[in-house]
Write a structure and sequence with these properties.
Rossmann fold; four-stranded antiparallel beta sheet; 15% strand
């Protein structure tokens, strides 16, 4: 008589299994979903989840990135390379296209384009008729994101109402929507920043070099390190320092700050992440420092 031994699953196994289940639910319930892929660490994990959910077949959705036109080249180059390696279709739509159409108008030439991504995203959803956008947002990132359901309903205007969301009892997910409405699905919603890095280590995932320690010119402002670039030059009176830094999160150059770090490997990043007391966005996002740019308001307007 054979004896069956029950395998003990690690917490990463459970998180991965949940994410695969959610991604398959989106593919099964929605007619035209899309996976948002920026080249950042969370979306890189999402690609691995998609591989495990659907390989050896093709993904049942294309990849898409809403580019501000001010993203770090290391990340966009990695984005293009990874999509090509997987042989999957990558759609790129830029805030600059919306500016050319007049649907995005900046208050000044140096205004951050980050918050205007919602306009370009909604335009892309309408252009391709997407009824679901799958993304790598996590609840531990920011308090507004902690309010999101796994399947976050958006109305016909692409707007999010945190008080009008569907129940998800017993992990039953409802991704159905009427024409014009859509769903934002978050398969790794229950992951933490530490979980992401542990998964990257376990799966041996390749990352853009910007995530690892390197020397970069910065200016210290409001407790953050503002990188000195062509888009964000030093101003009169600024003290420019060459500092050993890495990026915890990547995005628009004008609002994404690095942190001081000598972590040049995933193992060292894991140690730093396990001991930090500052949230990922709190330590790195300059656009989250003002109430005008609050995440909840931006999400209500259509931001991911």
């Amino acid at each position: 008589m054979s004896t069956l031994t029950r395998q003990t699953l690690s917490h990463l196994d459970w998180l991965e299994a949940e994410a695969i289940h959610i991604m398959r639910e989106v593919a099964g319930q929605c007619s035209n979903p899309v996976l948002l892929f920026s080249g950042g660490k969370d979306s890189i994990c999402m690609l691995r989840i998609a591989e495990k959910a659907f390989r050896p077949g093709r993904f049942p959705f294309p990849l898409m990135h809403i580019d501000t036109g001010h993203n770090y080249k290391e990340v966009t180059d990695f984005r293009d390379k990874r999509a090509a390696e997987l042989g999957e279709r990558l759609i790129v739509r830029s805030v600059e296209d919306s500016m050319a159409r007049g649907t995005v108008v900046l208050k000044s030439a140096d205004e951050s384009r980050n918050k205007h991504q919602s306009v370009t995203l909604l335009e892309a959803i309408e252009e391709f008729g997407f009824d679901a956008c799958i993304g790598g947002a996590r609840r531990d990132e920011e308090k507004a994101r902690a309010k999101e359901r796994i399947m976050s309903f958006r109305d016909e205007f692409g707007q999010w109402d945190p008080k009008n969301q569907r129940p998800e009892l017993w992990n039953l997910y409802n991704a159905r929507s009427h024409k014009g409405e859509n769903i934002r699905a978050f398969p790794i919603s229950n992951w933490t920043e530490l979980d992401v890095w542990q998964y990257i280590e376990r799966e041996q995932l390749e990352l853009p070099s910007i995530y690892f320690a390197h020397v970069r010119p910065v200016v210290r402002k409001n407790g953050l390190l503002q990188p000195v670039t062509e888009l964000t030059p030093a101003k009169p009176g600024d003290v420019v320092e060459d500092v050993l830094v890495r990026f915890r999160t990547v995005g628009d150059i004008t609002c994404t700050a690095p942190v001081e770090s000598d972590a040049d490997s995933v193992e060292k990043i894991l140690l730093e992440t396990a001991t930090t007391t500052i949230t990922e966005r709190g330590a790195t996002r300059m656009d989250d420092q003002t109430s005008e740019a609050s995440m909840e308001q931006r999400k209500k307007e259509g931001y991911f």
